[in-house]
From TrEMBL:
UniProt entry keywords in alphabetical sequence: Acyltransferase, Transferase
Pfam families to which the protein is assigned, alphabetical: Acetyltransf_1
Record protein name field: GNAT family N-acetyltransferase
Signal sequence segment: none
Domain annotation N-acetyltransferase: ranges: 1-158
Organism name: Streptomyces edwardsiae
């Protein structure tokens, strides 16, 4: 079963984020607290949304997909960015990942989103094969850029003060 997350899912969402980070060999980087997630997902101005996958037999939470809207200047339309897709290892292969992605695609269709995009680690061959089996196009000519920590602060320090 796929459903929208509720505030009561925050502990499970946080646990799965940490499990995903461990799988991606970056456990120390998953620092989000339950309070931060609660505010980001269910606060006054939510930053993202989450779908939850539950096992039909046990009712246990087996996966999640966290996404947020984005905008394309080229098409002049909104799209969806999938930040995290995770299915717990013991439940993989049962269709939960496909069901989560289908649920997200349905949201795209309902809201008129023309693009549904995400990134995948280049060493995650099973995920790449799965995404390609769905018809996803891997954009090999694009590279993700990121500024964090000291480089982000150094660049921000060079900003010209706003004219008032």
């Amino acid at each position: 079963m796929i459903r929208e997350a509720t505030v009561h899912d925050v502990p499970e969402i946080r646990a799965m984020i940490r499990e995903l980070a461990a799988f991606e060999k970056a456990a120390g980087q998953a620092r989000a607290t339950e309070g931060q997630l609660r505010a980001a997902l269910f606060g006054e101005d939510p930053a993202a949304s989450v779908l939850i996958a539950e096992d039909d037999g046990t009712g246990g939470v087996v996966g999640f997909a966290l996404w947020f809207p984005r905008f394309s200047t080229w098409t002049g339309t909104r799209g969806m960015h999938l930040e995290d897709l995770y299915v717990r290892p013991g439940t993989r292969g049962a269709g939960h990942g496909r069901a989560l992605l289908a649920g997200l695609a349905a949201i795209c269709r309902e809201r008129g989103f023309e693009r549904f995009e995400w990134v995948v680690l280049d060493w995650n061959a099973p995920a790449i094969a799965f995404y390609e089996s769905l018809g996803a196009e891997l954009l090999k000519e694009w590279t993700v850029c990121r500024l964090t920590g000291a480089p982000l602060e150094a660049l921000a320090a060079r900003a010209v003060p706003a004219l008032g």
